[in-house]
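User: I'm preparing a small set of examples for a lab meeting where we compare how different chains pack in three dimensions. I only have the primary sequence for this one, and I'd like the structure in token form so I can line it up with the others. Please keep the answer compact; I'll paste it straight into my notes.
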Amino acid sequence: MKLNRNINITKVMIGVVILLAACSVPKDEHQESDHHDESGHHEHHDENLVNLSSDQMDLMGVAIANPESMSLENTVQSSGRLEVPPGKRAIVGSITDGRISEIRVMQGDQVKKGQVIARIEHPDIIELQEQYLVSNSRLAFIRSQYNRNKLLLEEEAISEFEFQDIETQLKTEEAINEAFKAKFKLMNIDLREVENGRLISSVAIVSPISGFIHLILTQLGSYVSSEMPLFNIVDIDHIHMDLSVYERDIHKVKQGNLVAFTLVDQPERIYKGNIFAVGRNFEDGPRTLTVHAEINNKDGNLLPGMYINARIITDSTSGLCIPNDGLIATDGKKYIFKVKSRVKSDFVFERVEVITGTSDLGFTVITGKDELIKPNDMLVVSGAYFLASEMAKGELEHHH
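Assistant: Understood. Below is the structure token output for the 400-residue chain.
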């Protein structure tokens, strides 16, 4: 009896132990399970992670690559046109009225300084030469009279008054004769030919500079006056850029800055030049200053009046760079996507905040804000917008 009682007590104690174990173990397992669920739930909905398969990447146009080490240039965008200095452009006319008897050039022809480009004729040209010959004869006569009277004055054969009269005539005729010579020089008349009796009926119009014939404003047989422009000549060897720079950018621009530019109608070819002067007067309308840059025009392809788009290179920055298609902007912050992990064809991308530097030619210098961006990191270089959209969609589903 006593034995049975002990057995019953033992059974009760074992039952109590089992009951306590049953109550405690499920509780711990439930807590651990809850912990794992919460942990797993948190990892799956990390707002900075997004999962994509390689098939999804191909479909969205998402590409990955290492960042490139590059030197990018800080630039000021500008526009303008090609011009030549005032001293390298000439408007050519005639020194006298007359009729165009000869035109020796065509538009676009190269000419040298002093080259005859046309001739003009007028009866007054012949008359002017005749008047010079008369003046020359009269001057010779008055000079002989002066020399004779000078001797007579020394011998007191004539009065001082008589000598002063012939002296005045001599000075007057000499002045008239010199005026004729000056006119002949302006009219490109050879004085020696005239003095030898070979008079000409036309005078030459010559180019005052070397360059090319930009415009011809007359034609054969036209009657022109001395005030009329007849030819426009431009020296394109000294062509330069006139660029308009906004007031906000003018402090960045200085003499010696390199300029890369393209013609508006030929954007495929890049030309280069250097700034040699910065204007000091603001233009009306938009607050801009004119910046002048010299260029090399040895092949003669650049002409005055051509419109251009230019990039003024102010300085440069070196660092790790990413294509602009790999950057996204959200709430005033810049982000990239980095490959966090990869299992076969499945990728996990992490959104990383970055600080951006110089942008040029489709690339931007980047540095990590909270973590270092390394040269061997695999970054999204194309299609970052689609990853951002996928991330936003996942966050929306999580909130629902």
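A couple of notes for your slides: The chain has three domains: 46-70+318-399, 76-85+236-316, 86-234. The chain is about 30% helix and 40% strand.

User: Perfect, thanks.
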